[in-house]
């Protein structure tokens, strides 16, 4: 047992110790250049601002498979004698990595942590055994659970959806999984619970009653909320938008769609959004756009930190390295007052060609550094530049007089017509886009 990190009976990442902060002068690929966990940025440390989490699925189960080929990585735990033995070794490896990397959180699907069995009861027992193991490791290491969720998309039974499936028997199985996953999340002190509706959508309207499916999805979410509250879950429930893939059209298409759905079914008191960067770009939006729309509604709960490839038309789940993206994301987060109880979960995977175990660390280190630098730049822009003041000034005509009256709902169409007639053609006012973009670059390049 190392004094610096958890290590079980087997060390799965030999030669890699606790990842140090060495600063921008370092050439060590296994060291942080910008993420200094205890460094204060404003009133909080980087650790408190960013609340990093490692995802269980891509990191410890993602062997590099893609639609055209099987996996390229063989993990040590894949050689275990049984699926449950593999699950135990995988969990030991996970907590070794969490602690060496220095992240405070992790996230999991039920089927990541424990394999499915032939019956509901057996599957529940498998998960319960692994939850006991995770609880011991959490206590030993201090690593916490950011959120749990249920995999309601991989099993063949969910080919036509889970909560929106036209067969009630399938929906009941989905309910059983969510119940067990909520039990696990509460047992492990999870701060949130996520729904990703990868199969909640349709391939053709010819065989789909969208009204009934949306009603059923809302009823399913209410049932999950009510059960969660009944067993003591006090955190936020999170919906993760994505426009398509695997379904042609998914009901949780983008942030605006989810906000409208939550408000229509009066779920916004308990549910917020978990925004993924790659899903934003698949919807035709920027990462910052989806964050801003969620924050505008008061419903930005958490972030899946990754990126896509602009030349690939699918969800590539790459580690985030674009400082423009991380800075504009952190501008939204800082202006809404932070992410807690959410965080930044690296829903990202090493490339198919990256087959060394250290590549898992290098990918996370790069993502953590990119968001740490984005945090610093965003904070400087908000506290040292005129960014926010100049943006507010663009709307100053609504701060007093007729503009303020209109914003309060006290200036109708007749008054708008009379004002326009009395004041003639408005003078053009520049949006100064180039100035704003140059300002961002100015602070990025310091």
TrEMBL record:
The top EC class is isomerase
Location of the active site: 109, 112
Residues the record lists as binding Mg(2+) 2: 276, 279, 315, 317
Q: What is the first-listed, main subcellular location in coarse terms?
A: cytoplasm
Q: How is the cofactor bound?
A: Binds 2 magnesium ions per subunit.
Record keyword Magnesium present: yes
Q: Where in the cell is it found?
A: Cytoplasm
User: What Enzyme Commission number does this protein have?
Assistant: 5.3.1.5
The record ties this protein, via InterPro entries, to: Xyl_isomerase-like_sf, Xylose_isom_bac, Xylose_isomerase
| A GO BP annotation | D-xylose metabolic process
At which positions is Mg(2+) 1 bound?
Answer: 240, 276, 304, 347
Q: Which GO terms describe its cellular component?
A: cytoplasm
Q: Which UniProt keywords apply?
A: Carbohydrate metabolism, Cytoplasm, Isomerase, Magnesium, Metal-binding, Xylose metabolism
- Name its co-factor(s): Mg(2+)
Q: Which reaction does it catalyse?
A: alpha-D-xylose = alpha-D-xylulofuranose
Q: Which GO terms describe its molecular function?
A: magnesium ion binding; xylose isomerase activity
- What is annotated about its quaternary structure and interactions? Homotetramer.
Q: Which family does it belong to?
A: Belongs to the xylose isomerase family.
- Which PANTHER family does the record associate with it? PTHR48408, XYLOSE ISOMERASE
Full protein name: Xylose isomerase
Lineage, please? Bacteria, Pseudomonadati, Pseudomonadota, Gammaproteobacteria, Steroidobacterales
What gene name does this entry carry? xylA
